Amino acid sequence: MKRFLFCIAMLFCMCMTMNAQGLKTYSGVYRANAHFLFGTQKATYTYKNAEDGTRIYEGNFAYSCTSRPNLYTKVTGHFHDDCKEGLWTYTDKSSETKTLKINFKEGYRNGIYEYTYTTSKGTIKESLKATMKNGVMVGPVSGHAVQYDYQDGIVMGQGVFSGQTDEDGLADGTWKLTMKLGDGSTRVFYNKWEHGVIKENYYIDDTTGDKENINGGIPSVIVDVVRNTPYQMEKMIDRGSDKPWQGVLLDKKEVDEIKTKVMDSDEVYQLPKSDYGGCANDEEFIQAKSTIPNILYKLNGTKAICVIDEQGNVTDFEFTQAPKNPAVAKELERCLKLLKYKPAIYKLFTVKCKWNFWYDGNKSLLPEEPEEQISNVEAEKKVEDKVFDVVEQYPSFPGGEGAMFSYISNNLQYPEKAKEKGVQGRVFVKFIVEKDGSISNVEVNRSVDPDLDNEVIRIIKSMPKWNPAKQKGTEVRAYYYVPVAFRLK
Known about the structure:
The chain is α+β, with helices and mostly antiparallel strands. The chain folds into 3 domains: 23-255, no CATH class; 261-373; 388-486, 2-Layer Sandwich (TolA/TonB C-terminal domain). The protein has 11 helices and 26 strands. The chain has helices spanning 2-20, 220-228, 230-235, 252-260, 282-289, 295-298, 326-336, 376-385, 401-411, 416-421, 450-461, and strands at residues 24-29, 40-49, 55-68, 71-80, 83-84, 86-92, 97-105, 108-118, 124-133, 136-137, 139-149, 154-165, 173-181, 186-194, 197-204, 211-213, 262-263, 302-308, 314-321, 344-346, 349-359, 387-388, 425-433, 439-446, 469-471, 474-486. The strands form 3 sheets. The protein has a 16-stranded antiparallel beta sheet that branches. Strands 17, 18, 19, 20 and 21 form a 5-stranded mixed beta sheet that branches. Strands 22, 23, 24, 25 and 26 form a 5-stranded mixed beta sheet that branches. The radius of gyration is 29 Å and the shape is globular. The two termini are 56 Å apart.
């Protein structure tokens, strides 16, 4: 029994060691989005290196900015694959005490959202307690609010509020705000909502007991609470999540727009997914379902766009580069429309999402059943012109991959327009390394922004000649893929 337990313990340790392989630890000065803070900024976190030399955060993260022993700002949390995951806690003790707790799942707010602002006397000045689902507030909500006259810089009133949202994140039922005004009187405000549509908005006059209609809705109080401090606290470490929440609740008009809009793939919270009917990928699925022999060869250079709808169906199919044979084009469309996807998710909703398919046609050298007779010279020419995806010896930049990324880093110029727009991300580019080492057919496989795409294309085209790929000892043409990261400092 002891030997069994010992083996289990050793196996656990081996797994932990294997899991930790490749992770590095950083501890030191840190550039957080908190330049308004005074003091020493430091972070400790674990990470792994990406192919392009940037860091992918993985594991625990801790940040602090300390001006005095009892005056500090701290952030703690966890990253998984460069996304915030689990509970993150933000604490600000630069004057009075402010705490913010948010639960994340794959970089999006899912779970608790709690904010508390406590004065030096222990009184709660502002607060918000709610539950988030896919970045949207769902269920009961309550908190403390302060009403300011920003022009004169004085407090007009303080109070508590409560309400709820429905399963779509829309204000629903009765909302209540009890506000103690500057003159010492108390006023109670009410909203009656029905799935995001306000039906009544009033307060009861203390002197007459009558309902007095007013403008505006109580949910707007949440915006005042969140934008005042939590938004700034969350913004300190905004890596690995969507933009800091500003407290805005969904409204009926926005929900209707979400449900009708066709989203770009970089907009959605979760991309469409498919098991390809048990096949490894869409190409294997097409090969299995198609009645046309060797269809993948005949799709050489084919590109198509479509929409994955809310039910996960392939719709609105359109070729941007069609196969030469109309029958092949029709067969590809038929096969792809057999696919079933888990639809994309945006906020709480399954949504329509734009989707792309493209095929290089390198699954075989020649058709099994040629559509027309070709001469031996033509066949040799096809072999000569073939571009390999898989080769015995891949093309390489002079000096190796490290030298390639150094070349990119030293020559990359961040486009000013992209800087101004705050655009960043990774551009994936594909190109051919010719037999003589020259670069050709540079194209963007995954786009971020046209200006960033063009800069990457410029850099790749400016490269010196590579060492060409080899197959059976002979130089051949081969594809190469490179990710280029743009990060704003």
